[in-house]
Specification:
Layout lengths: L18 E3 L2 E3 L11 E6 L4 E6 L2 E6 L1 E4 L12 H13 L4 E3 L7 H15 L2 H6 L1 E6 L8 H15 L6 E4 L8 H14 L6 E4 L3 H9 L4 E5 L10 E3 L29 H13 L1 H19 L3 H10 L4 E7 L8 H7 L6 H11 L5 H5 L9
Parallel strand pairs: 6-7, 6-13, 7-8, 8-9, 9-10, 10-11, 12-13
Antiparallel strand pairs: 1-2, 3-4, 4-5
Helix pairs in contact: 1-2, 2-4, 4-5, 8-9, 8-11, 9-10
């Protein structure tokens, strides 16, 4: 539900796949804008979306492959197997990847992957691939040289001359250095080192200040920002796997009676379930989603992702990839063919509204993203 329910009525609880900074989870969103200068357009047929602010724009797949899992805690990832999995995602049409400088070897894996694509795939496929990365610096003085050195490091790791999207995170709002950093990032964009500048987990107040300073933000990764009109790339959409048949008809209050919560994602989203309405109410939601899924011949995660993608504020949704360990290629591609009817939507809304409004609990950007 933090993927499915936190952003909209269903989003009382859901968002989209998670990303984390250390032991903190970082959400993603795409920013269309709180004002007309930012426009988002999407093509259902191709499953792609364009995020635009002025002359800056980027098209991405509406389902984004989230690479937080490479940072550890989900099992050992072998690099060759991981790159093989990335190639498989791209060959299936899932060609947008989200990573960060702090997600373990994520940027290096992307560099290995993009070189294989250059060697083994046609140029047309290469042109469709997007690598979105995040920069999560300590709140030190943001000089031009410091910003440039860090961006050059990501460019080197990812083996690209220009980053498709640089998503900036800032830990301490009392330190206004984030504006200096963003101005330097904008300069690097003008030099061609970055194609688009974006944010991760900035709240509405700071987003407005940034836009008023003339910084062309094309997206913002946050849990809740519908009030600003900012388009989202959501995370936690399938709640690390909680929104799936695996957890249907389970009772986690009985030791060893249900599947283990053995990943950082499952543990985080179980806490969100507790905050939203508890495991019993969550089971009601799962049963509702299962009924919708069975009606259409798809899985619970497919319904969850489709429901979120259909929300007006959502441009894209991240689904975490455990590269070389497990995959959701079939379920992800099934999203693009699924059409939820009014009965489906109303049934999901009805159960999701019975939980607490998480906007009131965590605000438009959870405090786990601040120091």
């Amino acid at each position: 539900m933090a993927g499915l329910l936190l952003q909209h009525p269903l989003a009382h609880f859901a968002l989209s796949p998670t990303q984390a900074v250390g032991n903190r989870v970082v959400a993603k969103t795409r920013s269309c804008s709180w004002r007309p200068m930012i426009q988002c357009v999407s093509s259902k047929q191709e499953g792609r979306t364009v995020v635009k602010n002025g002359k800056d724009s980027l098209d991405i797949c509406r389902i984004v492959n989230g690479m937080w899992q490479t940072s550890g805690g989900w099992g050992k990832i072998e690099r060759d197997n991981a790159v093989d999995a990335m190639i498989k995602h791209v060959d299936s049409g899932l060609n947008t990847f989200d990573m960060a400088d702090i997600y373990g070897p994520a940027e290096d894996l992307y560099g290995m992957f993009i070189n294989r694509v250059r060697r083994e795939r046609p140029p047309e496929l290469l042109e469709q691939i997007r690598g979105l990365t995040k920069w999560v610096p300590p709140p030190v003085k943001m000089t031009s040289n410091y910003v440039r050195e860090n961006i050059n490091l990501s460019r080197k790791r990812m083996d690209v001359s220009s980053l498709d999207m640089l998503q900036f995170h800032w830990w301490d709002y009392s330190n206004s250095g984030y504006l200096d950093a963003l101005k330097h990032l904008t300069d690097l964009k003008e030099e061609g080192k970055i194609k688009t500048v974006a944010l991760t987990n900035f709240d509405t107040e700071r987003l407005q200040i940034i836009l008023e300073n003339g910084i062309p933000i094309v997206s913002n990764q946050v849990q809740l920002c519908e009030a600003t009109g900012v388009k989202l790339i959501t995370y936690g959409t399938v709640m690390g796997g909680l929104l799936s048949e695996k957890f249907l008809d389970t009772n986690l209050s009985i030791p060893f009676a249900g599947p283990p919560l053995n990943t950082p994602s499952l543990q985080k989203y179980k806490r969100m379930v507790d905050a939203w309405g508890g495991w019993g109410q969550f089971q009601v939601l799962l049963k509702t989603l299962k009924k919708v899924a069975s009606k259409h011949g798809v899985s619970i995660p497919t319904v969850a992702v489709k429901y979120i993608l259909d929300q007006p504020a959502v441009a894209g949704s991240m689904v975490g990839v455990r590269l070389g360990l497990s995959e959701h290629v079939k379920d992800s591609n099934a999203v693009f063919a699924l059409e939820l009817d009014e009965e489906d939507v109303n049934s999901i809304l009805e159960v999701s509204k019975k939980g607490r409004d998480l906007m009131e609990v965590i605000g438009d950007c959870g405090d786990e993203y601040r120091r």
